[in-house]
Amino acid sequence: MEENPGISVIIPTFNSESFVDEAINSILMQEYQGTIEIIISDDGSTDKTLTIASNFDKVKILERPENCFTRGAAAARNRGLSACSQPFICFLDSDDFYCKSHFSKMTKILKENDSLGFVFCRVLECREENGKRMFRQWTHTKVNKNDIKNPVVSRSHIVHTNSFMFRKEVFENAGKFNESYSNGEDGDLWMRISEVYKGAFSDHFGAVYKTNHSEYQLTKNEEKEIRKSSLMIFNNAICRYKELKLKDRFRIFKLNHTRLIILYNNKKSIYYFKYILLILHYPISIWYILMDYYYYYQKRNLVFSNTDSCFLK
Questions:
Q1: How many CB atoms lie within 10 A of CB 60?
Q2: Which of 9, 295, 302, 306 has its CA 20 to 30 A from that of 277?
């Protein structure tokens, strides 16, 4: 592999004129010597998003074809994947941005271990309060081996779309985003990839995720639709677990537990009854449950800071 492999960064956009320039600049400011390909995959913006993006020389713009009937983040990212030319691939939401030196740290890990299909890093959460940016860590303080082996499945606040870097061949073998899902298509793909590829964790804050401007986001659905889509995703994940003959008691316990949460969200008595049966079926899960509560309360105590410098060391 070449010393500094090229990186394709896919940014799906839709009416992102207020912040797409910051996303692009955060890529251009990376201290990385290899080729960086920036792909703006637009989903039909009606504002100045494409005009702003076109002002950057190194940006490739993909407009949604007129005969394209699939919309949303999944379709936009898939169109971007089809246009990628570099061996490493990242995704960055148009309202978010990367931290300095992120690419160098991520590529170093992939270059040193050919058996890895992906690597992910920590993410900062950013929100604006009274015109000021406030930051706190979005990723759990402790990332363990089950989190790395079972992204999405293990627990929330471990992986984020912005936090990954993949080898291009991963998508050739594991597939792309499932556009039939109205929500959670990213988590579905991360689970499918982790079923056939090993990953690694880079212990640095590499991306910033903004949380209080949901009106601009590509994926917005009602709770009923979210639950329906989530149930399909986890039912399919359980089926694949059996088909692939995976042997990971932690993974199958967590898949079944998440399925219970989705199914019996408003039927607590039934949920707890089935949860107890699940625990009895997988006795080793008691330790995982205790750790989940510990991490949950640890996460609740995190506070916002008016600077990101304390995280970017």
A1: 17
A2: 295
Beta bridge partners of 205: 122
Contacts of 203 (CB under 8 A, 6+ apart): 121, 122, 143
Specify the pLDDT at position 302: 62
Nearest to 21, CA basis, from 44, 50, 53, 61: 53
Q: What does the buried/exposed string (b/e) look like for 208-221 if buried means 16 or more CB atoms within 10 Å of the residue's CB?
A: bbbeeeeebebbee
pTM beyond 0.90: the answer is yes
CA distances from 212 to 215, 230, 236 (A): 9, 23, 32
Tokens of 79: 């169109």
Can you read off the two tokens belonging to residue 112? Answer: 């040193």
Query: How confident is the model at residue 65, as a pLDDT?
Result: 86
| C-alpha to C-alpha distance for 122 and 100, rounded to whole angstroms | 13
Neighbours of 59 (CB within 10 A): 20
Measured at the alpha carbon of residue 78, what is the angle toward residues 147 and 17, in degrees to the nearest 5?
A: 95
pLDDT of residue 215: 54
Residues recorded for the chain: 313
> Right CATH number for 7-214 from 3.90.550.10, 3.60.15.10, 3.30.300.70, 3.90.79.10?
3.90.550.10
- Count other C-beta atoms under 10 Å from residue 182's C-beta: 18
Phi, psi (rounded to 5 degrees) for 198? -85, 150
Q: Which residue ranges of the chain lie beneath pLDDT 50?
A: none
Instruction: Give the pLDDT confidence score for residue 284 in this predicted structure.
Output: 72
Q: Where are the alpha helices (DSSP H) in the chain?
A: 20-28, 49-54, 73-83, 102-112, 145-149, 169-174, 185-196, 223-243, 249-263, 268-281, 285-300
Please state the domain extents for the chain. Answer: 7-214, 223-300
- Predicted local confidence at residue 258, as pLDDT: 96
Map tokens 């592999």 to a residue: 1
